[in-house]
Structure formats: structure tokens, C-alpha cells
Write a structure and sequence with these properties.
The chain has 430 residues and is mostly helical. The protein has 17 helices and eleven strands. Keywords: Glycosidase, Hydrolase.
Length: 430
């Protein structure tokens, strides 16, 4: 296993671009928000300084209002579309790197706690100032989420673009996205299908709608109030809300170590609001948590991995715990590797197409974490072991076919390497 651990570390080194890591060469040539948060935890298993640096480079792109963009364009590249010219966000954050105009799941706070805990076990006192700086950046981000993406005080934060969810072409978005126009002013010059088979990527019509949404928000000059009013796609996302809630709990933990009493009180209020919102999204008949389409007012019942992500934030009752265990086992039945990103019995399931079926190591990492939090250690160990085995068999691929275990998407993928390092680290320290 030491050889594979060395290989995982080598991938992070290969994808290092000077203190920040690209997800993989060519296909994703910039710094992505939640990718870097996961990657920083991978680095923390063997290099604390480099782990901190990953987050420090990410906040170089933080907007003045607190938003952490989903892409930071540190250096130019022509191997990805849409690039900074399509986003045209320059006027929103002077004297900072060019960025996209939307965000991604706020794993940042979770990563900061993970890194700081390891630093403490190593007796590192020199990281206090770095932790404090990153804590305040995370706090500004969480304030942004609550103000800008839950203005109606539901206790659920909304996404205005499928890319923000991280689960770009998930079946969960199909109905809401179908209402978005396919007409664009921007010429769509996809680069992804030059690197990866089109059978593994979102359809062209999806991209037309993705770019149409970018154009709508660009015309709002990226003003969040105008975007909220103009958004043709608006979903209160349980996956996003759960990650924000969990990250908030982790920031409370950090604040207690930094003796930041006012911040503890502020974050505790946010945490309580988010947990209340999440609890209301449980559905007994589906044995999971569902997002809410804020335009139609309907539950989004498509069975995707988002059903289970709230476990990282919420303590389930006995009935819910048993129901979730049964449901996850049903999804994994007959699969070489679970948990599929879409239930295999769903009519939307495609085992090789991006977020419509394949297994993602970082999603399994979150699910394992949530299962452990909810005293379902045996199921967690099975999923953890299957994930490690899939990576050892197929390599550090972007995602995996749950039916065959085949590696799919980009190769030498940073967050898959990071997931392996963290899962192995946890196993070795049990």
C-alpha cells in the first residue's frame, strides 16, 4: 500500500501549479473551489505547510462580499471552456485573480478543521496565525451564503446554477434546468470532449443551458440581489446546505480553540438555522433528504447521492438511521463499487455519464463520514473499503463505473488521490 500512497502523493505533486493544485492536467487547468478543499486535506496527511498553502491560494480569489468563486484563473489556459472572458467578472474584484462568477460547496471550513487538528497533534504552534486568517475568510463566506443564498430565511441555501452544486448534470436538476433556454449569445467551444469521451460528459443541450445561465448573471453584472430576482434556475439544495452546516460546526470548533466568543455565538445561530432547515427536508417514503425547486415549489425527488449527504451534519433518529442504511444497501446491491451518484434502479441511471450514475471517491468520503457520525460504522467500513479497492484497481480516475469498477473521466485526478490518502490515513490510525 505504501507504493499506492506514494503514487497518490506524486499526483498531487504533478498537479501542483505553485501552491495550488489543478484537478487534472488539461481538462481542468485552473484552481477549483471544493476540489482544493479536498486536496488540502490530502496534503495534510503528509505536508501541513502545503495543505495550508492550498487554502491560502484559494482565498486569493475571494470576493469582497465574501463569496469564494468556483474557479480561480491564476494563469491563462485555452484547454477549458468557459474561460474568464465568458465570465467577465473583472469589475467585481479589483486587484485579485480573475475568477468565475458562481461558487461551489463550502468544504473549506471542513478542510481547515481537518488540517488544524493534524497540526495540533504534531505540536505545530506556528500555524495559529495561518489558521486565524483562513478562519476569518471562511466566516465571511458563510455570512455570504446566509445573506445572499437564503434571503427568504428557509434555513436552506440555494444554488442558481447546476455547476455550483458540484453535481453538474445530476438528474436532480433535469426538471428545473428544462425551463432554462438553450439560446446563447456566446459561441460554445467545448474543450472537455477533446479530453474525455462525450459518452462520459454532459449533453450539448445541458451546456447550452449552463452558458445561458452564465449570460443571465453576467447581464446582472454579478450583483447577487439582481441575480436572485433574475434566476431562471433556483434550487434549495440539501447537499449544499448540509456541507455548509457541517463546515459551520467545524468553524465553531476552530473558534473555540481561538477563543473567538462572538464568532462562536454568530456561527452557533447559523448552525441552528441550517439544521432546522435540513430536518424539514427528510422524506420517509424516499428514505432520504430532498432538495426544493424554489421556482415550482416542488420537492426534487430524483434519487441521487444528495439524499445521504445531510448525514454529515445531522444526527438521525433510530427510524431514519435504519431507513438510510437499508436505502444505501439497496443502491449498492449488485454494484462492484458503491455508492452510485444516481440510484441504479432509476430510469435516469447511466453508469458512465458524469453525475448520472458513476461513483465519486469524494462523495463516498462524505457519505462514510456521515455514516460514522450516525453510528453506522459497519456500512461505513464497507463503503470505505470498496472505495479504496476501486482506486487501487483502476487508478486515480475522476470517477468510477459502479457496475464494472472501470475508471472514467479524467486521469491522475487530484481529489481522488486526496480521498485515497485521507481514507488510508483514517484506516491506519484506527
Amino acid at each position: 500500500m505504501s507504493d499506492i500512497t506514494d503514487a497518490a502523493r506524486a499526483i498531487l505533486a504533478f498537479n501542483d501549479r505553485g501552491g495550488y493544485t489543478v484537478p487534472t492536467d488539461a481538462l481542468y487547468p485552473f484552481q477549483w473551489n471544493w476540489d482544493s478543499a479536498f486536496v488540502s486535506m490530502g496534503f495534510a496527511t503528509f505536508n501541513i505547510d502545503r495543505a495550508y498553502q492550498e487554502l491560502e491560494r484559494l482565498i486569493e480569489g475571494q470576493w469582497d462580499d465574501g463569496m469564494l468563486p468556483h474557479i480561480v484563473f491564476h494563469v491563462p489556459s485555452d484547454t477549458y471552456f468557459p474561460g474568464p472572458d465568458v465570465w467577465n467578472t473583472h469589475h467585481r474584484h479589483h486587484k485579485k485573480p480573475t475568477t468565475s462568477g458562481i461558487t461551489q460547496p463550502p468544504v473549506f471550513g471542513m478542510a481547515l478543521r481537518y488540517i488544524y487538528e493534524i497540526a495540533l497533534t504534531e505540536g505545530r504552534e506556528d500555524v495559529l496565525a495561518r489558521t486565524r486568517l483562513l478562519f476569518h475568510a471562511a466566516l465571511r463566506s458563510h455570512r455570504w451564503w446566509m445573506k445572499v443564498r437564503d434571503p427568504e430565511k428557509r434555513g436552506l441555501v440555494a444554488i442558481l446554477h447546476p455547476w455550483e452544486s458540484g453535481s453538474d448534470n445530476s438528474p436532480a436538476w433535469d426538471e428545473a434546468l428544462a425551463r432554462v433556454s438553450t439560446i446563447t449569445k456566446t459561441e460554445i467551444c467545448r474543450q472537455d470532449t477533446k479530453h474525455v469521451s462525450a459518452a462520459m460528459r454532459p449533453h450539448h443541450a445541458d451546456y447550452q443551458r449552463f452558458i445561458h445561465l452564465v449570460e443571465v448573471y453576467r447581464e446582472c453584472k454579478w450583483d447577487p440581489v439582481k441575480q436572485w430576482s433574475a434566476a431562471p434556475f433556483k434550487v434549495a439544495d440539501v447537499q449544499m446546505t448540509a456541507i455548509l452546516a457541517r463546515a459551520t460546526a467545524d468553524l465553531i470548533w476552530i473558534a473555540s480553540h481561538l477563543n473567538l466568543l462572538d464568532e462562536i455565538n454568530e456561527l452557533s445561530t447559523i448552525h441552528r438555522i441550517l439544521l432546522d432547515g435540513l430536518r424539514g427536508r427528510w422524506r420517509n417514503n424516499l428514505r432520504g433528504f430532498v432538495s426544493l425547486d424554489l421556482i415550482s415549489g416542488k420537492d426534487i425527488q430524483k434519487p441521487t447521492q444528495a439524499y445521504f449527504i445531510p448525514l454529515i451534519a445531522i444526527e438521525l433518529d433510530t427510524y431514519q438511521r435504519e431507513a438510510v442504511q437499508d436505502e444505501i444497501e439497496r443502491w449498492c446491491n449488485g454494484m462492484i463499487v458503491g455508492v452510485p451518484s444516481t440510484a441504479p434502479f432509476s430510469s435516469d441511471f447511466e453508469s458512465k455519464r458524469y453525475w448520472r450514475g458513476p461513483v465519486w471517491a469524494v462523495i463516498n468520503w462524505l457519505i462514510v463520514d456521515g455514516l460514522c457520525k450516525n453510528h453506522l460504522a459497519e456500512l461505513a467500513a464497507i463503503i470505505e473499503g470498496n472505495t479504496i479497492n476501486a482506486i487501487e484497481r483502476a487508478g486515480f480516475c475522476e470517477y468510477f463505473d459502479p457496475i464494472t469498477g472501470e475508471g472514467l473521466g479524467g486521469n491522475s485526478f487530484s481529489w481522488t488521490a486526496a480521498a485515497y490518502l485521507v481514507l488510508r490515513h483514517r484506516l491506519n490510525n484506527q
